[in-house]
Specification:
This protein is of the alpha/beta class and 264 residues long. It is built from four helices and 28 strands. The strands form four sheets. The chain has a nine-stranded parallel β-sheet, with no helix packed on it.
Length: 264
């Protein structure tokens, strides 16, 4: 194990011998660092935090600190980082605020400079947060979603898989899978390029496109449109798309951009 002489490692921490710990790193508490990780200068990892194999954590990132939640009274909670993640300079990831709960970052996520993952968030695999992206508490982010730079996401919002969130956006409601937003957080269409790059078949893409039209452009009531989309969904991708609209939502699902908007 390569541990710099200036690093502090708590006696309760477990660090795999294949990992590298840089100068002025602080590992405080029952932290668990998996194999082949690299923690750069001045990284801080605290609390009941687990970092999976092959992660790269860059300078001044802070992982596992207490939540920024006025209701937090010292509950025993955790923070779990998956395998193969890249966590760049100044990123902050806070542990959960609820007893026994966890803030979770999935495998192969890429968190760019100064992005923030608040308490009780759940990021699925291969999520990208671009520099300055801020997630409020209890946010859920689906597989391979991209949240662009300096975007703020309200607490309890859900962002579906392969969603592409526009830069400097204000996201106050749920964003469905496979969609794109503008800088105001309104849905503007499907992430067609992302679907092709991720290997979705033409039949998958056609069905998602048809279901999108039913829900967003048919003129039906939202409830009836979701019911019809659910009835017509055949592919697994289409079923996941329709199911998102039926799932419980704290904030409601974002609708299309108002074409009359002067900013449109």
């Amino acid at each position: 194990m390569a541990i710099h002489a200036t690093a502090f490692i708590d006696s309760h921490a477990v660090v795999d011998p294949t990992s590298e710990i840089g100068p002025h790193v602080v590992i405080d508490g029952p932290v668990r660092i998996g194999p082949n990780c690299r923690l750069g200068p001045s990284v801080i990892v605290v609390g009941n935090t687990e970092i999976g194999a092959g992660c790269s954590v860059h300078s001044h990132a802070v992982i596992g600190d207490i939540p920024q939640d006025r209701k937090f009274k010292g509950s025993l909670s955790t923070c779990r980082i998956g395998e193969g993640c890249v966590i760049r300079e100044g990123v902050t990831i806070h542990r959960a605020s609820i007893e026994g709960a966890a803030t979770i970052v999935g495998d192969r996520c890429y968190l760019m400079t100064n992005s923030h993952v608040a308490h009780d968030c759940v990021l699925e695999d291969e999520v990208t947060l671009v520099s300055g992206a801020l997630l409020g508490g209890h946010v859920q982010v689906g597989r391979k979603a991209i949240i662009s730079g300096n975007t703020g996401v309200h607490q309890f919002v859900r962002i579906g898989e392969l969603a592409m969130i526009g830069g400097v956006a204000m996201i106050g409601q749920d964003i469905p899978p496979f969609t794109m937003t503008d800088h105001q957080g309104a849905v503007v269409g499907l992430n067609s390029v992302g679907l092709m790059r991720d290997g979705f078949s033409s039949s998958d893409r056609d069905e998602i496109r048809n279901l999108f039209k039913i829900i967003y452009r048919s003129g039906m009531t939202f409830q009836r449109a979701v019911e019809l989309a659910t009835e017509l969904a055949v592919t697994e991708a289409g079923k996941r798309f329709a199911a998102f609209f039926r799932s419980d939502s704290h904030r409601g699902v974002r609708r299309l951009r108002d074409r009359r908007s002067r900013h449109g």
